[in-house]
Amino acid sequence: METPHLSAPLALRLVEARVRRVICSATPLGGSRPVQFADGFALDRHGHREMLYVMEGCSHFLYRDRVWKVAPGTLVVIDAWETHSFGYRTTDNGLRHIWLGLHPSCLTCTYLGVERGRHRSIARLESLSGASLGHLSRQWGEVAAGDLEPSLRTALLAGVAEAAMRAIAVETACSAEPLDNTRGLADFVAEYIMRQHGRDCSLARLERVTGYSRFYLSRLFRRQRGMTIGQAIVAARLRFLADAEAQGLKQCGIAEALGFSSPSAFCLWKRRNRPAGAGNG
User: Fold this and answer.
1) Which residues are CB-contacts of 213 (< 8 A; sequence separation ≥ 6)?
2) Is the dihedral of CA 38, 42, 48, 54 positive or negative?
3) 18 burial level (CB within 10 Å; 0-12, 13-18, 19+)
4) Given 69, 143, 213, 228, which residue has the most CB atoms within 10 angstroms?
5) What digits encode the pLDDT tens for the residues 61-80?
6) Beta strands in the chain, from DSSP E residues, in sequence order
7) Residues 244-252: what's their mean pLDDT?
8) Looking at the chain, which residues constitute the CATH 1.10.10 domain(s)?
9) What is the mean pLDDT of residues 220-236?
10) DSSP class of residue 29?
11) Is 3.30.70 the CATH number for 180-273?
């Protein structure tokens, strides 16, 4: 079960986090190698920005079609629609990762523990609304898009990440309440599905994320949202599909980002679920 509040030890670790190395689009490729099929990475890409901060453990991470070794203190800055790893491999073990996701309405902070490729969410927070979120979003966007020297860009991105982790720790450490007291459970599930663009949103997964049984979640979601969880997953996938096509992504890349086993399976799903006349086929 995910813990929707911040423990004092984790809050302290966020406040004390220091970035030692930054991997971003401006990073020289000398510390990486081209990805190979045998590496076994699952791929993801989406329309929001993310940062991965490594707290503990060493592993390899796929970013922009290159494989990078990531160690404690490493920050990976993922801009919108950049290709990166999805999930973890069986060789990943003893890892503690912080994922920061910048969405239009909030900043999400997920603290993951990974053992033998299986990850569990130790804490998941949503914070920074209104002016604070807007300020962080502008800072992140300006640094990412600015015409800056690579060394200055990486230093500024490290500063943005450290500031975000400190801000979310301060905002939530003392004031967070249990999940079902801070927002409707059905709303939480709906937003989770949308942010995942429907990928890895099985009822079993939603049970682990929320701590509630799939039967209770299904009944509550349908009653409060007027649709089934399956219909919400279809809607999230269709939204991602439209956004990805607008970005010029190829159908095979979209299929992989949505978690389909093959492009043909994706095409079959699209024929069954996409409204007639929508998109480019």
Assistant:
1) 207
2) negative
3) exposed
4) 143
5) 999 989 999 999 999 999 98
6) 21-23, 32-34, 42-44, 49-56, 59-63, 66-70, 74-78, 84-86, 95-102, 107-115, 118-127
7) 89
8) 180-273
9) 93
10) G
11) no
